[in-house]
Sequence to fold (182 residues):
Amino acid sequence: MGQYYELHVAGITRLLKKIRISDELTIASFVMLGDTELIEKTGEELFSRLPEGIEMLVCPEAKGIPLTHVIASKLGIDYVIIRKSVKGYMEGPLVQKVQSITTREPQIIVLDGVDVAKLKGKKVCIIDDVVSTGGSLKAVEDLLEKAECTVIAKAAVLLEEGGYIGEDLIYLEKLPVFRDQE
Fold:
C-alpha cells in the first residue's frame, strides 16, 4: 500500500497522506485548512449543487469552517459554528454527545444559545469537509432538532466509502478507506 492517495476533486488534484487510525484501518487524511484553492473550488462546486430555500448554514468546527464561509458568501446568508466544548461566553448552550471515527473517546458538540435563537424556525444546511460513518452528522442533526430548525440539506466535500449510507448527502467525491488486507 502506497503512502499517499491521489484525490481528484472540483478540477484539482491533491496527494493525501495515508494515516493509520487503528490496527485495522488506514484513512487518507484530508485537511483543507490553509488550502485556499481547494476551499474556493470545492465551495463553488458544492454551492452549485445545493437546493434553493436555505436560510442558514451550520458547520461543526473546525476543518469545514472556511468552506462554510465560502458557500455562505455565495448564498448571501450567515452561518453558525457548532463547537466542541462549552465556552465561558455561551448563554444557555445546547449539548449533544458524539462519537467520531477519528477520535477515541466520546465527545460533545455545543450550540451557543445565542445561535439557537438565530436558527429557530430556519431552513438550514449542514456543511462539513468529510462524512465518514455519519455519527457526527447524526449528532449535529439531533442538536439542530433541539434548536427547532429544519435541516433541508447536508453537504460535504468527501464521503468516505463504507460508512454513511444516507442518499440525502450532497458530496463531490468518495474517499476510500484502507483495511489491513488491502
Q: What stands out?
A: Residues 39 and 67 are 5 Å apart (CA to CA). The longest strand covers residues 150-160. The chain has a mean pLDDT of 91. Helices lie at 36-49, 65-75, 113-119, 135-146.
